[in-house]
Amino acid sequence: MTAKPIKFFNTTGPCDKRLHYTLPALPRLVGVNELIEKKLYFVIHAPRQSGKTTYLKALTDEINLGNKYYALNCSLASLWKTSDTREAMDDVVAQINSSLDDSSVVALRKLAYAFNSKPYMADKSAKVRKTLKDMCLALDRELVVFFDEADCLEEFPLIKFLTQIRDGYLYRASPSGANFPKSMALVGMRNIKNYASQTRPDSESLGKASPFNIITETLTLNNFTEDEMKSLYDQHTAATGQAFAPDAIDAAWRLTQGQPWLVNALAKEVIEKRLKNDYSKTIKGTVMERAAQDLILSGQTHFESLKARLKEPRIRMVMESVLVGKARFPSGVTLEDRQYCLDLGF
């Protein structure tokens, strides 16, 4: 089976031909298949624009091309800022159905909207759990589910969603045959395990029934290595003849540290805007530096998203210390606060 690659800086070639440079998606995160085989539930988190969604699509395709399990990749991005619990649970089920309907697997497509008329659909406390349970009972293989953008759920809707996942997990092997997905991953920018445990700390407690005691592993999708970044640039050189000077490679690594969106955006900025797709020009470090400044001033969504996060007190405390060059963080800054910033891509 060949995993779908991650596509990167699509430069405009002669006659508007698009040039695609890729890296294999699945090798970027190891250990997931072992967690699935062990029937475990786990978390994957990484900053925005780091390849999470592409990775999940490739993993879903690989599983569905096999003959052991079915895999469903379901995005919860539409639930951002949905505060009403009933509405949120309705939306989760709607997204599950939409993902079933879009699946490449016939057995999964047949289940789309199959359970909407059931009486339990009016019960916000159980509809997600029962929908997943009935799906598993109707399939001839075990099911693996990936909930992408799971951290779009917040506060009480998040607690209700995770409690249903926990209940299904605990009773999936009971004598009553309460089947449930074999394995599940909650995927997002933030480590949802830590984020959700801080939900309403002054008034709401998950207590001993915390759904997070079923989460066995937390995985992070790493940035590119310097060799991987150079591999992408070498592909451009092989396709066009345009060379990267050694100082350009050094500058790109220093400026991006392998963050996928930055690696991609910086190369496009240099090739398409600074050098106007003139492949006869060698890419030099000075051009990389100027392109980086152009990106900072461009107001692209990636940067605007990070700027908006600076309003959060825990992020502001960390980043103020970094920007002014303090040797130590203030006493109120915890390791979790610092990790939270890293999770978001700061």
What general outline do the C-alpha atoms trace? globular
**How is the biggest beta sheet arranged?**
5 strands, parallel
Helix content: 40-55%
What's the mean pLDDT score?
Answer: 80
- Number of H/I helices: 14
The SSE string, one letter per element, is EEHEHEHHHEHEHEHHHHHHH
Describe the structure.
This protein has 14 helices and 7 strands. By secondary structure, it is α/β, with parallel strands linked by helices. A 5-stranded parallel sheet has the order 4-5-6-3-7, sandwiched between helices. A two-stranded antiparallel sheet has the order 1-2. Helix 6 (155-170) links the parallel strand 5 (142-148) and strand 6 (183-188).
Kindly summarize this structure in a few lines.
The protein has 346 residues and is α/β, with parallel strands linked by helices. It has helices at 32-37, 52-65, 85-102, 106-109, 127-138, 155-170, 192-197, 226-240, 246-256, 260-274, 285-297, 301-309, 313-323, 335-344, and strands at 5-12, 18-24, 41-45, 69-75, 142-148, 183-188, 215-220. The protein is built from 14 helices and seven strands.
Topology:
Elements: E1 5-12, E2 18-24, H1 32-37, E3 41-45, H2 52-65, E4 69-75, H3 85-102, H4 106-109, H5 127-138, E5 142-148, H6 155-170, E6 183-188, H7 192-197, E7 215-220, H8 226-240, H9 246-256, H10 260-274, H11 285-297, H12 301-309, H13 313-323, H14 335-344
Helix pairs in contact: 3-6, 5-6, 9-10, 9-11, 10-11, 13-14
